[in-house]
Write a structure and sequence with these properties.
Layout: E1 2-7, H1 13-26, E2 31-35, H2 42-45, H3 50-55, H4 63-70, H5 85-91, E3 93-94, E4 100-103, H6 117-132, E5 136-140, E6 158-163, H7 167-180, E7 187-195, H8 198-210, E8 215-220, H9 223-231, H10 241-255
Bound molecules: adenosine-5'-triphosphate and magnesium ion (MG).
């Protein structure tokens, strides 16, 4: 299964991507989580300390690796074909959640025709992870819709579009779903997050119905999650209603 997690800024993409990945790993699957946000922070959700996460050099910023893979003896000329399978073993970071983490760095122009060496490398690596390998892959995407052009990210089989009940989040979620419709992505659906109660749930359901969108899960607002974001103290998963709901979504997705 290859899953991309998308949505407006701050709606909970990283929290949901990390919690899903951790659940898949604890269910016994090899999971690779890809942080494709230019300001990466998926590592902390996967149990790394802030210091450990900050030490990871994103692939797109790893000049030695880029040179090794794409460099030629001629300055300014670079290779477009190279092997990437070795990169996963060497540069993915094991995390306490059991998930292997790959931090890509800026992959904003993934769908565009950009052919600079860093982008070529990231693009080839993403393609390899999404198309050639059997691991479960979860892609935590940059906020917004730009990155969802006709790019490598469209090779996923499921696109989870995270939204809260805020109008702007809903509008962006609908745009993302529209952009992805007609691509090869088989499953595109909304995940409502930080839903405070029935009135917000009704807003979300009404919006989804009006726009012909599926709702895959509704994750409640959870003060424990919000507080963990403030204090940095890990969430007690067993007592978190949001974590439980995301774990349930993971289990449902695996059943299909
Ligand atoms: N269900 C929830 N209940 C309460 N707080 C939540 C919930 N989901 C996420 N949060 C909090 O919302 C904040 C934003 O979450 P997160 O970083 O996952 O969003 P994001 O969409 O990845 O943001 P960005 O666009 O900046 O990458 C965090 O402080 C997180 O702890
Ligand atoms: Mg994020």
């Amino acid at each position: 299964m290859k899953i991309a997690v998308s949505g407006k800024g701050g709606v909970g993409k990283t929290f949901i991507a990390g919690t899903l990945a951790a659940r898949f790993a604890s269910n016994g699957h090899p999971v690779i989580a890809i942080d494709a946000d230019p300001s990466p922070n998926l590592g902390v959700t996967l149990g790394l300390t802030a210091e450990e996460a900050a030490r990871i050099v994103p692939i797109a910023e790893n000049e030695n690796l880029i040179l090794l893979k794409t460099g030629t003896e001629f300055p300014g000329v670079f290779r477009l074909t190279f092997t990437v399978s070795d990169i996963i073993k060497k540069y993915s970071v094991p995390t306490p959640s059991g998930v292997a983490l790959m931090v890509m760095g800026t992959v904003r122009s993934m769908g565009s025709g950009c052919i600079c060496p860093a982008h070529s490398l990231v693009k080839a690596l993403l393609r390899h992870l999404l198309v050639d390998r059997n691991d479960m892959v979860i892609l935590d995407m940059e906020a917004g819709i730009e990155h969802l052009g006709r790019g490598t990210a469209q090779r996923v089989d499921s696109l989870l579009v995270i939204t809260d009940a805020d109008r702007k989040s809903l509008m962006i979620a609908a745009s993302i779903c529209r952009l992805a419709t007609g691509s090869e992505i088989q499953k595109i659906g909304l995940v409502g997050n930080r839903i405070t109660g029935t009135p917000q749930e009704i807003i979300l359901r009404t919006f989804a119905e009006k726009n012909g969108l599926d709702i895959l899960a509704i994750i409640p607002y959870d003060l424990k999650v919000a507080e963990s974001g403030v204090t940095g103290v890990a969430i007690d998963e067993k007592t978190s209603v949001a974590v439980t709901a995301i774990q349930h979504l993971a289990d449902e997705m695996q059943k299909e």
